[in-house]
Amino acid sequence: MKRLLTLMLLLPLLSFAQKGLPAMPGMVSFTYRNYFAKDIPATLDIVKKNGVTDMEFSNLFGSSAEALRTQLDAHGIHCSSFGVSYDDLVNKTDEVARNAKALGAAYVRVAGIPHQGALTLIDAQKAVETFNKYGKILKNQYGLTFIYHNHGFEFEPYENGTLYDYLVQHTDPKYVSFELDILWAFLPGQNPAELLKRYGKRYKALHLKDLKKGVATGDLSGKTSQDNDVILGTGQIDIPSVLKAAAKAGVKHYYIEDESSAALQQVPESIKYYQSIAKQ
């Protein structure tokens, strides 16, 4: 009888595992940026109340990495990815790596490329050189994996594809991986699921978010109202096809990012939706 009860409890978790999806998505600290800026422990209480134990931080919110790690440990939360600026990657590499290690992160993430106006081939070529160089340093000296997070402007047309294709194809897979922000792929007119199918194992993480219905796509500016982030499954993006492609690609981390002013209300609903799809 005990074995039967144990099996019944494990079945929901097994269904997730079989799909290659975690039972619970992670969270990006930017979702609760205004709360973290005021009270880190209280905000971690909110995160944990939602059942989230995997986080990506791109801000220390006035704390040291060591002090933040102490708070994370106390809440049973793990920081798997640490986001930094392009400039800090280049000019503060050792500090970035030390902070990432102190947080317990496996990944160092950058979410932008210096450019003026539309991204150019020269901009992309410089980024490739930078990512390969510092990705190698992070890997060989610190055991960290560098990941690049798209922000929309990378999808400028180039040859038979885009400059985003150029970035993926010309960076060294040994030292450079990627995090797909599905909204910042969809808004410029791309299909996030197709990108996951095309580049597969290059992706280590996703930013899960949905774009408000009625917002026009084809915008390569890398800008849209933060309140265009809506509850997963209520917007324009085909979330089930994204999750299916991500699982097949072997993506390990699925971070919800809700930049809207309604994040406190929307995040629990997005988590429910994620779980409903993952269970199917």
TrEMBL record:
Keywords, ordered alphabetically: Isomerase, Signal
Keyword Isomerase: yes
Signal peptide: 1-17
Origin: domain of life: Bacteria
InterPro entries membership: IolE/XylAMocC-like, Xyl_isomerase-like_sf, Xyl_isomerase-like_TIM-brl
Gene Ontology molecular function terms on file: isomerase activity
Domain Xylose isomerase-like TIM barrel: from-to ranges: 45-274
Name by which UniProt lists this protein: Sugar phosphate isomerase/epimerase
Organism: Mucilaginibacter straminoryzae
